[in-house]
């Protein structure tokens, strides 16, 4: 009579361990046991086909020559002709004339189709990983619906504007705007509607956090109501980032190494943006900074804990610059922001993100290419919207201010290789 | 039947005097047959492992880049070659295994039976089978991983195919080492089947 579970011998660990799941403590939004991702000799069992699909999709990014032709266009019809030869051509061919919003809708629709195809072909743990990518867009859609009702837009308009990667059931989406915009309203919204959705977990944490804050204040904070929607969004994104980070860490291997670094920089970007956007709003009040704004900073990232403690005390742009410049990886971004060339810190962050995401495609047998593909496609869509807007408005001077993707002539690549 | 050698103190019904008695009482024909089985099955495991590693990537990459389909089947063929080495070795070893018809009477080997040759052949065939089997497992996995990367790289940039193929060729050479050593080793092995 031996133990119930056989103790793993070296033979088991070497050959068979990749096939068996690891017993883990129950975690946030996925089950207690997580199948192993696998190393180079076992990854392809479950994920080989899907990974090679996404790597094939990597070919569809617009190249330097495509961007060159697009920036030379004088009218949107020329743009449509040039786009017709790219991967996006099929999505645009049924349109009589294009416009920046139409291009954006078509490109996002194509990205969603491809992503949902990947999702349908995936198994655990990749399917949970892809679900996490979709949660971000679900949060965006919830906020769109909540904000939309505050400004009195029609529910059908809002649903047509929702991001296709973050769709809920039709009935769920239609019922979101019917709840009132108050703490009790949000609690009701969670109990009735959101508790069954994948992002219900984040909403419940948000409610717990704000109940705690209200309880400690002893009274309703009227001053915060006008920014409450932004607080909700920032909180949900914070919880999503932390959950995703914990999941990637649990996956281990190359996936953890690459994804955790990407998510850490994302958390820092989130913290800096929350701070930057709070200037001039009620969230910047000294009494509220230290408690409410600080609660919005994620607990992952290079800035946590010391940087976020400093950020919680920042009151204006100069103080923010002083704090950000102390961190060597963000000081250049702040310099771009204050350099007066018309670029903001967002542009600097986009460039840095693209450089990091391109690296995610380097190694084989991990999940980072899936996340990287979605984010790089988003950047490409931003580029296309920028270029078509510039062409539409006739501003040829600024048409080249986009971030090239997988380009040998990208500024960071040129600098890194020491070329001119 | 109790047995002990060298005046040992074992008095039970089934006693072994030591490992030498355990090993020498295992039939050389058993060793030989297991060698044959290991040679074949481990080669097939290696080949199958390599084929699914490279095949899954090939199928997915060909969705967006159909031109890579035919060229990259070479990776699958390299993996299949390791299975063929296993089959060749199994047939060669099977030819060496001979039934001891002339040398057995009433369930025992007769006087003058070439015990040395029998034991040598048993161990030799076992080890030849292991040589081929284990090297083919390594070779199959190596070709599989390299073939998977080759398919993905070819889908991005066609000029990479031949360069990565060279990696695969070196990987499949590992299987050839196994079969060469196995054949040389099993050449000396002759199961006696009659008293000369």
Description:
The complex is a heterodimer of chains A (420) and B (196). Chain A has 420 residues and is mainly α. Chain A contains 20 helices and 2 strands. Chain A has a two-stranded antiparallel sheet. The longest helix of chain A has 26 residues, at 253-278. Chain A is globular and about 60 Å long. The model of chain A is unreliable at 1-8, 17-27 and 218-224 (pLDDT under 50). Chain B is mainly alpha-helical and 196 residues long. Chain B is built from 6 helices and 2 strands. In chain B, a hairpin with a 2-residue loop joins β1 and β2 (108-109). At the A-B interface, α2 of A face α2 and α5 of B.
What descriptive keywords fit this protein?
heterodimer, A: 420 residues, globular, disordered N terminus, B: 196 residues, 2% strand, elongated
In whole angstroms, the N-to-C terminal distance of chain B is 33 Å
* Assembly of the depicted chains: heterodimer
Query: What is the tally of beta strands of chain A?
Result: 2
Uncertain spans of chain A, ≥5 residues at pLDDT below 50? 1-8, 17-27, 218-224
Layout of secondary structure:
The complex is a heterodimer of chains A (420) and B (196).
Chain A lengths: L9 H7 L5 E2 L9 E2 L8 H15 L6 H8 L4 H9 L4 H4 L7 H22 L4 H25 L4 H7 L8 H6 L7 H10 L7 H18 L10 H24 L1 H26 L7 H10 L10 H6 L5 H9 L5 H8 L6 H15 L8 H26 L17 H6 L4
Antiparallel strand pairs in A: 1-2
Chain B lengths: L18 H6 L3 H37 L3 H4 L1 H24 L7 E2 L2 E2 L5 H42 L3 H28 L9
Antiparallel strand pairs in B: 1-2
């Amino acid at each position: 009579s031996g133990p119930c579970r056989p103790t793993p011998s070296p033979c088991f660990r070497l050959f068979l361990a990749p096939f068996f799941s690891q017993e883990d403590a129950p975690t946030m939004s996925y089950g207690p046991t997580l199948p192993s991702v696998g190393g180079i000799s076992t990854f392809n069992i479950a994920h080989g086909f899907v990974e090679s699909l996404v790597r094939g999709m990597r070919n569809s990014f617009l190249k330097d020559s495509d961007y060159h032709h697009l920036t030379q266009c004088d009218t949107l019809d020329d743009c449509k002709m040039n786009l017709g030869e790219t991967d996006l051509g099929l999505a645009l061919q049924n349109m009589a004339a294009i416009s920046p919003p139409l291009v954006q809708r078509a490109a996002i629709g194509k990205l969603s189709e491809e992503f949902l195809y990947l999702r349908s072909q995936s198994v655990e743990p990749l399917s949970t990983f892809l679900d996490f990518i979709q949660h971000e867009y679900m949060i965006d859609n919830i906020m769109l619906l909540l904000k939309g009702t505050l400004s009195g837009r029609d529910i059908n308009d809002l649903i047509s504007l929702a991001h296709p990667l973050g769709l809920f059931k039709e009935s769920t989406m239609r019922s979101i705007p019917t709840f009132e915009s108050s703490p009790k309203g949000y609690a009701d919204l969670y109990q009735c509607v959101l508790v069954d959705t994948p992002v219900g977990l984040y909403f419940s944490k948000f409610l717990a956090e704000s109940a705690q804050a209200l309880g400690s204040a002893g009274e309703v904070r009227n001053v915060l109501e006008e920014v409450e929607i932004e607080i909700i969004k920032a909180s949900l994104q914070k919880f999503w980032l932390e959950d995703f980070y914990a999941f990637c860490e649990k996956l281990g291997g190359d996936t953890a190494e690459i994804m955790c670094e990407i998510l850490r920089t994302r958390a820092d970007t989130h913290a800096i943006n929350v701070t930057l956007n709070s200037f001039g709003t009620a969230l910047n009040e000294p009494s509220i900074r230290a408690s409410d704004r600080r609660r919005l900073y994620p607990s992952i990232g290079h800035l946590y804990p010391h940087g976020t403690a400093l950020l919680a005390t920042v009151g204006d742009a100069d103080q923010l610059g002083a704090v950000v410049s102390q961190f060597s990886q963000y000081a250049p971004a702040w310099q771009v922001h204050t350099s007066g060339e018309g670029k903001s810190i967002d542009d600097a962050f986009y460039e840095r993100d693209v450089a990091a995401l391109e690296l995610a495609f380097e190694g084989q047998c991990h999940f980072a290419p899936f996340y990287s593909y979605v984010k790089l496609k988003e950047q490409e869509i931003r580029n296309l919207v920028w270029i078509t807007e510039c062409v539409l408005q006739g501003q040829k001077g600024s048409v080249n201010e986009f971030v090239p993707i997988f380009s040998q002539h990208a500024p960071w690549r040129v600098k890194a290789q020491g070329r001119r | 039947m109790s047995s002990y050698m060298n005046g040992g103190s074992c008095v039970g019904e089934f006693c072994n005097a030591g490992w030498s008695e355990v090993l020498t009482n295992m039939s050389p024909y058993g060793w030989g047959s297991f060698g044959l089985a290991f040679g074949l099955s481990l080669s097939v495991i290696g080949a199958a492992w390599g084929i699914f590693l490279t095949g899954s990537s090939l199928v997915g990459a060909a969705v967006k880049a159909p031109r890579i389909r035919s060229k990259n089947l070479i990776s699958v063929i390299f993996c299949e070659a390791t299975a063929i080495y296993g089959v060749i070795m199994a047939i060669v070893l099977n030819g060496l295994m001979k039934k001891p018809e002339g040398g057995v009477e009433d369930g025992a080997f007769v006087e003058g039976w070439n015990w040395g040759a029998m034991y040598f052949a048993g161990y030799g065939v076992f080890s030849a089978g292991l040589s081929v089997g284990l090297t083919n497992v390594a070779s199959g996995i190596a070709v599989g991983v390299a073939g998977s990367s080759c398919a993905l790289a070819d889908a991005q940039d066609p000029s990479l195919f031949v360069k990565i193929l060279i990696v695969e060729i070196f990987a499949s050479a590992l299987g050839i080492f196994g079969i060469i050593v196995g054949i040389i080793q099993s050449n000396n092995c002759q199961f006696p089947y009659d008293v000369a």
